[in-house]
Design goal:
- By secondary structure, the chain is an alpha+beta fold.
- The chain is built from 4 helices and 10 strands, in the order ββββαβαββαβββα.
- The strands form 2 sheets. The protein has a 5-stranded mixed sheet with strand order 1-2-3-5-4.
- A hairpin with a 4-residue loop joins strand 8 and strand 9.
- It starts with 31 loop residues before the first strand and ends with a helix.
- Bound molecules: adenosine-5'-diphosphate.
- Adenosine-5'-diphosphate binds next to helix 2 and helix 3.
Length: 264
């Protein structure tokens, strides 16, 4: 009997037909599902399934800043708490937040803050909790994407949404939306976030090696898929309000029914 070590990346990431390990073409995204308004006790929330990633985002505040010395008298601050559940990866992850979680929390704050009117909340904090239930590569991009939805769901004024996806390189080929295996065994990973109100990049990290031409080509294909993901975000927000409208209509017709019965 052979032991399958699930955490080991396959040797070959792209076959001779240009297909990736999960059957995707080079520039295909993994399947993405988003839902808004999912955590009842938060001011706003959202959930995303992006390939093997499952992530919740919940927003609280604006509220008092603890510790107080972090507060700014002239503006609010955005605090992000990105955490991976101990069961989110094949080997149990240590429960205490590590350097990577602190780094991702910080880059999330930096990439989301430009769309917020933080000057409206002096001495206060918007707190954004991001829980990674399952991780399979690209969690920072999926987290930024779902966090923007949670902020919008909380009714916090925003200049626009923020969307993120990673480009990369594996087996010498340029790819989009790197999976965990591609992240681990590939040659480059390039997560990018965009703030739509000014079309500016608010996150650009780079891990690996590629030529300048490859970098430029990657940015172009990242831009195209960011637009697709942005549409999905807008659809997810609209869906919530269509559901609420349908509930109201159903309630109204039930009441009319009850009222009608009484008259008879
Ligand atoms: P991102 O998730 O944004 O791609 P990284 O490049 O740091 O961030 O991580 C790539 C992937 O490696 C993660 O999505 C996750 O699947 C895996 N990973 C991260 N941290 C751990 C860990 N502590 N133990 C096992 N796997 C991890």
């Amino acid at each position: 009997m052979s032991l399958l070590i699930k955490d080991e990346a396959p040797e070959k990431l792209i076959d001779e037909n240009g297909k990736r390990v999960d059957g995707r073409g080079l520039k295909d995204l993994r399947p993405i599902k988003m839902e808004v308004g999912i955590v009842p006790n938060a001011a706003g929330s959202a959930y995303i399934e992006w390939g093997g990633n499952k992530i919740y985002a919940a927003v609280y505040g604006p509220r008092e800043v603890h510790p107080h010395h972090m507060a700014r008298p002239d503006r609010g601050i955005l605090r992000v708490f990105y955490r991976m559940a101990t069961f989110s990866v094949h080997e149990r992850k240590r429960a205490a937040p590590g350097r990577r979680e602190k780094e991702i929390s910080m880059v999330m704050e930096n990439s989301l803050s430009p769309v917020l009117f933080l000057e409206l909340y002096p001495d206060s904090a918007l707190e954004l909790f991001v829980e990674i239930i399952a991780a399979d590569g690209g969690t920072r991009c999926a987290s930024i994407t779902v966090a923007a939805l949670a902020l919008a769901d909380a009714g916090i004024p925003m200049r626009s949404l923020v969307t993120a996806v990673a480009g990369g390189k594996a087996d010498g080929k340029l790819i989009l939306d790197c999976s965990g295996d591609e992240d681990k065994a590939g040659e480059a990973d390039l997560p990018v976030a965009i703030t739509w109100f000014n079309n500016e990049i608010s996150l650009l990290q780079f891990d690996g090696i590629m030529s300048l031409e490859e970098f430029e080509e990657t940015i172009e294909s990242v831009k195209e898929s960011l637009e697709k993901i942005h549409e999905m975000q807008q659809e997810a927000l609209k869906r919530k309000y269509i559901d609420i409208r349908n509930d109201i209509k159903e309630n109204e017709s039930e009441h009319q029914h009850e009222g009608g019965d009484q008259e008879i």
